[in-house]
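Quick start: what a row looks like.
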Amino acid sequence: MDLKMTTATRQEVLGLYRKIFRLARKWQAASGQMEDTIKEKQYILSEARTLFQKNKNLTDINLIKQCMDECTARIEIGLHYHIPYPRPIHLPPMSLTPLQGRGFRTQEKLRKFSKPVYLKSHDEVS
């Protein structure tokens, strides 16, 4: 059972990888400028290679699923907004107000949990 799950998961991951490369091949920049299109295609390909290479040795099914969810979210957001770059969140530092004695560590923890799924690996790679 575990081997089948690994094989199915592997096929899903490879399918996502192929989907990203097809997306990059067909990508057109929102500006319509050829140099922007080339730059964005290169970004899509390099980001995909970097993240897939970084996570190629993961064995925990839950971590793999999280990475797949992030990948899917970034694809959908990129297609929707016509921007290949991750959309930043606007959460200024120290914007979470302390609730009676909560310290800096708690605020950092809340900030970490408030980060959207599509930005989980962006800070690690960039």
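That is the whole record. The longest helix spans residues 2-26. The helical segments are 2-26, 34-54, 61-81, 104-114, 122-125.
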